[in-house]
Amino acid sequence: MTTDQVLTGLGLIVVLAVGSQVLASRLRIPALVVLLPVGFTAGALTDDVNPERLLGSTFSPLVSLAVAVILYDAGLGLDLRRFAAHTRRVVLRLLWFGVLVTWLSAALLAMPLLGMSWSAAVMLGAIVVVSGPTVVGPLLTFVRPTDRVQRILVWEGSLIDPVGGILGALVFHAVVAGGRHGLGSQLAAFFTSAAVGVAGGVLGSAVLFLMLRRLRLAEVLGTTVQLAAVVGVAAACDIVRDDTGLIAAVLMGLAMANLPGADVPAHKPFFERLVHLVIGLLFVSISATVTPHSLQHVIVPTLGVVAVLVLVTRPVAAQVASLRTDLTRGERGFLGWMAPRGIVAASTASTFSMSLVDEGIGGASMILPATFVVIVATVTLYGLTAAPMARRLHVVRSARSRPLLVGGAPWVVDLGQALRSAGLEVLMWAGREEERERIGAARLELARGELFAAATGAGAELEGLTGILLLTEEDDFNALAATNLAGFEGTVHRLRPPMDSEGVFAPYSDGDVLFGAALTGAELARRYDRGARVLTRRVRGPLPVGTDLLFLVRGDGRLLPVTRAAVPTPQDGDVAVLLGGG
Asked: Which residues of 151-169 are buried (b: 16+ CB within 10 A; e: fewer)?
């Protein structure tokens, strides 16, 4: 290919990936729903978007390294200290029993329906066990199921990516080893591959931990160090043993999430943006390699596999996982109706299928197009039916707001108690120990750990937040936090800084600012010290004289703040949250 053709192809892949993600965010649908058809259409209509032609033999290694980065990020989300006990039993059952029954049923169906060899069918079954938070998360945000169901599905999605990645890598090496003569050599090859991945993960974790702990790197440099470590270790492991880098990457992410003092959360937001771009590029590139010709004899039999997985396998797995638990019939039913496949399935299919084709495994060429059909079918089906199914099963969360209040000043704790008395479930976070003690004394729920991890629901038990109120005494902190939380699915508001002051960075005076022009953070603290208090009043006519309206709580539990841009109109039956006195 000419230089112009390569530049055109690479440019189109980047533009299509980012454009698809932007469109999906505007439509509030999973990015896969847009990325897959866009990549497939681009690959079918033009030869320019063809990564195998653009990159040649480097495409497969690049996909493998990209998957390693994604799995490392998935491992970072597995803070086992946040694995709440009330969801652990169901999630663990979904992992071991659900993965096993999905793997076996997909493999057993693929042999007769797709005409695959046993080795290729087992590999396909291992690939389609994964779901993943990149697919489940947006669907749950749209559907808004009850907290308990959401926590289970978020934890399952977070854990099954690395579990599926490890399973896929191990099955791949077992399949390749199975082509060699002698049981002893097969077992030796299998355990050698596992040992290489584990050793790489341990060594890489140790090196990365020491660098982050000793060097105290800033966010951008800390992110690039993580990226270099993961790519370097994964590449080294793959050199020693094909595709063992995936095992090492997952273990590195898991270790960095759970080793005390690793300081990874501070570097995670920027790393997540990088992974978001990698996911888009991978989906467009991989789907572009799936040709219409390769799908001709695959679509119908694969849809048969999907039908069994959706209608039989997943419901059975959900029922077994919820045995002897207090989950309602509706909650069990919804767990059985939510298992879309995502990026790890597509990426591992692309990585392993090429190698198995080279090994001469019968039916290996159908693994990628079959996986493509499984992803498209499950994402489309669950995307269209999840919301009406949740309503039918009565597992839709109420419209009541669940705000996170950041800050622990006396007036902020008073506000938290007032919102709780208005019927809202309030969560609070504070950095200073005396503030945390004040929150605990008020018997308000306290979010543990690092702020951005708590606010974005990284711990899974904090899923369901509808808004964040940044109420600390530091205006610069509030402004900076509001900027870093721009990707939060709910609303983010912060206190108004003094009109005549300037911040340390540009967006200091921008964003969704709370309350009237005179109610800055300093003024609120001053008035509270002079005797003002946060009050709640049921709206029945005009608001009390001498009070400032802060929030309205509608009858359905929605929290409406007074902001610089808008003042909600009180209605009879609302609960008004007021500042009175002082």
From this structure: bbbbbbbbbbbbbbbbbbb
